Amino acid sequence: MRFIRDKGLGLLLCLVIAVPAWFLGKWLPVVGGPVFAILIGLVIAFFPRSEKFQPGITYTGKKILQYAVVLLGFGMNLAEIFAVGGQSLLIIISTISTALIVSFFVSKWLKIPSKTATLVGVGSSICGGSAIAATAPVIDADDEDIAKSISVIFLFNVIAAFLFPALGTWLGFNDIGFGMWAGTAINDTSSVVAAGQTWANIHGNDTALNYATIVKLTRTLAIIPITLVLAIWRSKKEERTAGSNVQFAKIFPWFVLFFLLASVLNTFLGLGEADSAVNTVLSSVFAEANLSAFLTTAGKFFITMAMGAIGLNTNLIKLIKSGGKPILLGLICWISIALMSLGIQHILGIW
Length: 351
Description:
Number of strands: 0
Structural class: mainly alpha
Radius of gyration: 20 Å
Order of helices and strands: HHHHHHHHHHHHHHHHHH
């Protein structure tokens, strides 16, 4: 009851934002529910509100966001990813490394705050909004950093969904080559699917769409090592600043381990090929109840709620004034990833 009394109003407000944003995202998936939620939150933030809302808004933007990342793990089938995504591993490692290196040096040149640069880098290189959601708590990013990076990712998501199929046709890609390119060079899963579907409509088969989706999910697994490295980096940095040992357990992104556990659980229960009778029954129940789809959908809805909270905590005028440099950083990262993917594919003879 105390939890409801302290945080109920804020949670309810975020829920009220998330519901229309969710349906708007379904209607226009290239934009997506989280972006609509941020926009609605930004508009509502202009109006005065009671301080009683703030604890629930803060809880949604921090804790609910972490729970959302965990639930997204139920959408990962590791066996399927390793079977198909392993072919793209070199390209994925190369593009992620390129984005992070470019983000580091360009942010120094443009004098962009390190937290914003980190979020733009991981969002561009790994999986857009999901990577930003996973990374933000680890580096202790504030809501303005998250809003900036989500806005940058959204902009290039929309451009990529329309531009990539036309560029792929012009460059003479086959289905696998385009699937590989889209899966490694487009930021967010929704735009990967949109671009793959457009290609499928033009070329009359779903090969590129399926391949792009699997490659994109393989990229998502990079959330785990990236967040762990960032947690170690943050703990060392705080030790130097504080001049004393920092408890790593307090910084460690435990929710990312639960994300991995959810992925393993989904893979184990979703295969339906277990040897024991007990495992077979569990797999059957898991499949028939469609729990994987339900939990993944719940995770996406929680992200939409969390983005609404972030919008509520963000100053729109300040965001617009400071948004130019992050957009330029996102553009440079995006172009670097696309060119690196093309180059590695050419070397490997895929394209």
